[in-house]
Amino acid sequence: MLSYIFQRVLWAIPTLILISILTFIIIQLPPGDYLTAYVAQLSETGETVDEATIEILRERFGLNKPLYEQYWTWISDIIFRGDFGQSLDWNVPVADLIWQRVGLTILISFLSMIFTWLIAIPIGVYSATHQYTVFDYIFTILGFVGRGIPNFLLALVLMWLAFAYLGINVGGLFSPEYTNAPWSFRKFLDLLAHLWVPVIVLGTGGAAGLIRIVRANMLDEIYKPYVETARAQGTAERRVIWKYPVRVALNPFISTVGWALPSLISGSIITAVVLNLPTTGPLLLRALLNQDMFLAGSFILILSVFTLVGTLISDLLLVWVDPRIRFS
Amino acid sequence: MATKPLPIKEKEKESQLYQASQWQLIWWRFRKHRVAAVSGVIIIFLYVIAAFVEVIAPYDPSAFSPLYAYVPPQQVRVIDSEGNFRAPFVYGLARSRDPETARITYEPDTSNIMPLKFLVRGDEYKFWGLFKGDWHLFGIDAGPRDRVFIWGADRLGRDLFSRLVYATRVSLSIGLLGVIFSFVFGIIIGGISGYYGGWIDNVIQRLIDFIRSIPTIPLWMGLAAALPVEWPPTRVYFLITLILSIIGWTGLARVVRGRFLALREEDFVTAARFVGAGEGRIIFRHMLPSFSSHIIAALTLAIPDMILAETSLSFLGLGLRSPVNSWGVLLQEAQNLSSVALAPWLLIPGVAVVVTILAFNFLGDGLRDAADPYGD
User: Fold this and answer.
1) What is the domain range of residue A122?
2) How far apart are CA B43 and CA B53, in angstroms?
3) For position A135, which CATH number holds?
4) Complex ipTM, two decimals?
5) Digit-coded pLDDT (tens) for B340-364
6) pTM recorded for the entire structure
7) pLDDT above 70 for A258
8) Residue A300: which of B218, B341, B350 has the nearest Cβ?
9) Distance in Å, alpha carbon of B341 to nearest chain A alpha carbon
């Protein structure tokens, strides 16, 4: 088991390196470099820059060095100094902009995942134990519809309904008076009051798919002899279901947690743009539209790394939960 | 005597079952799946629309007129205000300005009856970019400045129905084309991986793991944002499709590899090898036909993801851009909450997205179940 964990962690290292290279390629993709954009920005405001200054700046930023050296400067600054470069658009270090937003993104993704489980597991188990009943059909239909509606569309419709019929704007994560306030208990409460909208929007899509998986897995399990044995021994029905088949049915599900996290983080980006959340989504979009590539690249890098870590954790979790993997 | 004909019929059915080809069995099984069959019809219908866009759309999708900004959907009626029954018509528009908000509002003008006509001449178009024409499926026979907006108009007074019809062609073809790209990558790489196994398999599987571990949307966004704004729409269209397939192929490669691995050990493959068939012949003549139905199912299930991805990117302003119409481009207009509140019909393209995605998912599910007709 230890060697398995060791192997998995070891595999993460080349993947991380590949991710960083890919991110660097994305940063380099738009035509021109950091400096051309900078010069364009300066001339827009009326300042003129002569060739000599550009050359000096190019030298200072190391833009005349070969690409692999530039890559090394970029990645070593991040690893050893936590320096992600300078945001052209905001004119501040990237590191100052991203961490709170990354934190909120992870918080929302994590809460959405919990929310997904909280509704998907009981409903899936109910649908399986009450197969072909009215509620099973209702949940099945809701599940399919949920699968067909993209999150951002759901967010759009919810916002429109709330705005048109209730007269409230459900966008954002904080009320205006708390947006720039330092963290306090009141701000936290305010956050909770806004958080449910994105959590529901992000959670329903995933829940729709999971209900089907849980239902199918449960149906495979509940007719097996061991369940019958438990029942024959006089165990209460509730205990029979929740103690034995549910545990087995949830296994494949834990192994997909790692896959659920990337899609959640991905999905949250577009939803966040619609709901105007102060998470990574809107800032990443703005950075990409303005070709503020160091900021955009940092987001892509960090989101990818978190995804990788999420996958790793779910793999290890599966080993811990399922003894059949642990001992083979 | 009366009971005798029945067993014969049953027997005929049974022998029919034994003689049926694989594709016949698949077709029979698929037909039983009602929802999937209905979804299949819906999808065929959508692709027919996509094929005859120029004729079905009553107007040029880019034709704008400030006179018609945010015209609400006009109801097609058959009974007029006096209770008379007549051929389908719409009322003309009575324009007035809201004294408080200074917004222009439109009311149906019951005195102005504009009959809807079937097959009329209107805006000129080039069918598939090849043949000139000006016939449209429907329209109104009225003054040159009168128009009919069955699904309303947008900010610039463009007909939403016409734009949606044109967008259907772009969105549906991106789904199809993207899946074809992914299919080519997937079948080649997945095939190599599954057929040869060993270290090649290992390397390819790690590559797939790697690609799948990157969050898709940020990666797509990053790549799409690198496309220069001044590029012609067709080039952007192809590159967006290619970008979407960069991730799409991994799923298909997995399906292909899994099938190859399962079939490699089958007796008929070993037999073919003993007879001295070359590798190309074994793969294309013996292995591929036996899992092509699975691949078709996997392809069908991959299309809605492609469509959704394009819609998302265009919705964010990173994919296709106006004047190209796609569902995402149309939905972009609905991004602004106040314009949706003002003109809820801007969400109609969203209905098209949901219907299409659901139909493809159901069809894919049905095909997947039918793909292996020999099971129970």
Assistant:
1) 95-321
2) 15
3) 1.10.3720.10
4) 0.80
5) 888 888 999 999 999 999 999 889 8
6) 0.83
7) no
8) B218
9) 6
